[in-house]
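ugh ok fine here u go
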Amino acid sequence: MFRKNGGHFENFPVQQLVNGNRKNNRTNTIYKKSVRVLKRVENAMVANGVHRAVPSFFIESLVYECPDSVFARLSWTERVNGILVHVWDGLEGAEPSEESARWLEVNECKYLFHASQKWTRTDGRDFAKAAWNYLGYTS
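structure:
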């Protein structure tokens, strides 16, 4: 895809759809619902001046990186709590040098964090912390 400024970026919509559907099937349709819940939380935080806007694709990729077991928790409170904890803990520190430890976009074709990306690991942690506080979770 080409940008207005003359640059371009690669987009992998088929892979994103296939991988998202597979994860959604493995999690009994909880994965996509979880993405929607966190997008709504982000919209509410922005509307209330609690946090800046975060790209939907970034939220989707953060949720995608959570283990399937998080989506098997019994309540929505426990699931969202588990997602936010996983994001917070998983993004601590610098980007790993070992490829297998790096987080991927939903399409699994590109790393989620790289020099040309408009978000960072810190942005992911900031979002998780803001959502945690906004939802009133405690340690």
